[in-house]
Amino acid sequence: MSARPLRVGVVGLGWAGQQHLDAYAAIPGVEVVALAGQEADLLDELGRRHEVPATFARWEDLVEVPGLDAVSIAVPTYLHAPIAVAALERGVHVLSEKPVARTGDEAQVMVDAARRAARVLDVVFNHRRRGDVMALADLISRGALGTPYYARATWLRRNGIPRLGSWFVNEEMSGGGPLVDIGVHVLDWSLHLLGEPRVLSATASAYSELGPRGRGGSSRDTLTHETSAYEVEDFASAFLRLEGGGTLLLETGWATYRDPVDVMDFTVYGTEGGAEWRAVGATEVPVADVRVFTERGGHPADYTLTAQPGRAHRAVVEEFVEVVRGDPAGWPAFDGSSALTRARVIDACYRSAREQKEVVL
C-alpha cells in the first residue's frame, strides 16, 4: 500500500472533520479522494480548497467509492457505528471521532466488524497527545512516582453546552451529555497515564440542572432551527475502583456555576511521589506545566516539568496512517478495543447514576 497514494475519505464538515482534512493534507502520499456532508455550501468550499475529486451529501455514497483505503468519521455519535461497519465490511480502515459510539454494545459491533474484516479501527483520543500528558506519562512509566494509587481528573466548563437544541443534547443521537462527550477524554487520558488498569466498578452521579432551563450555553450556540429538548446531564462525577486497589475520581461538566474559564486537570498520588498539571483555559491552552512532588533524603525535592505543546489531531491522523501503511500483521492490535473499554466504563457510570448504586463491570 505504501507504494501508491493512500486514498482517504472524510465524512463530516464541522471542526473535527476539518481537522482531519488538514492533517491528511500535510502527509505526503495521502490523497483525500472523497468528502461527504449535508451542508452544501461548506461541502463545495472544502471540496474545492482541498481539491477533493468526489463530494457527496450521503455517507452511503462515499463508502462505495472504488479503491478507498480509509475513512475518517466526524459526524454526530449516532452515525459512528453504521458508517464504521459499512466501511469495514468493504475492507476500508476507519478512524472515528470520540466517543466510539453511544453505548458499549454499539462499540462492540464496531470492534467485531473490524476483527472480521482484519482492518484498523481507531478512535481520536487527541488529548492523550497533549504535551503535559505525554510528559507525565513518561515520568510515571519510568517509575518516578512509584506505584500510583489515587488520581483525580476533571474537565469543567461554565457555559459550555455545545449547542442548545442540537443533536448534542438529544439523548438518542448523542448517547448522553458531558460524561460521554468530554468525560470520555478525561477517562482516556487518566487510564492512559495510570498504565491502563482495569476498572472494577463505578459509582457515579449525573445532574441536569441548567440545560433544561436554557442555561449553560450562549446565544451564539443556541440554534433556532434545531429544537431538541434538553435530554442529557450537564454535570457528572464518578468514583472508579481500579484493579490493584487504585482509585480514580472524575468530574466533567458542560455547565456549572464556577469560574468562567474552563479547566482541564489531572492529579496523581504515588508511593514515591505525586504530580499534577492544570490547564486553565482548557482547549485554548495547548500545554500546562507538570508539577512533581517528591523527596530526597527525607526532604522535599519538588520540581516542575515544562512540556512542549502536543500535536492533537495531527498526531492522531499521522499515527493512523502509519499503522494502515504498515505490516498488515499489526492491524489486529488496532481493533478499537481500547475505545470499547472506555465505552463500557461510561455505560457503567450512567447506570450507576440512574440506579444510585455502585455498578460492577
TrEMBL record:
Pfam families: GFO_IDH_MocA (PF01408), GFO_IDH_MocA_C3 (PF22725). It comes from Kineococcus xinjiangensis. Gene3D superfamilies: Dihydrodipicolinate Reductase, domain 2, NAD(P)-binding Rossmann-like Domain. Residues 134-275 form the GFO/IDH/MocA-like oxidoreductase domain. Keywords: Oxidoreductase. Coiled coil: none annotated. InterPro entries: Gfo/Idh/MocA-like_OxRdtase_N, Gfo/Idh/MocA_oxidrdct_glycsds, GFO_IDH_MocA-like_dom, NAD(P)-bd_dom_sf. GO terms for molecular function: nucleotide binding; oxidoreductase activity. It comes from the Bacteria. SUPFAM superfamilies: Glyceraldehyde-3-phosphate dehydrogenase-like, C-terminal domain, NAD(P)-binding Rossmann-fold domains. This is Putative dehydrogenase. Residues 6-123 form the Gfo/Idh/MocA-like oxidoreductase N-terminal domain.
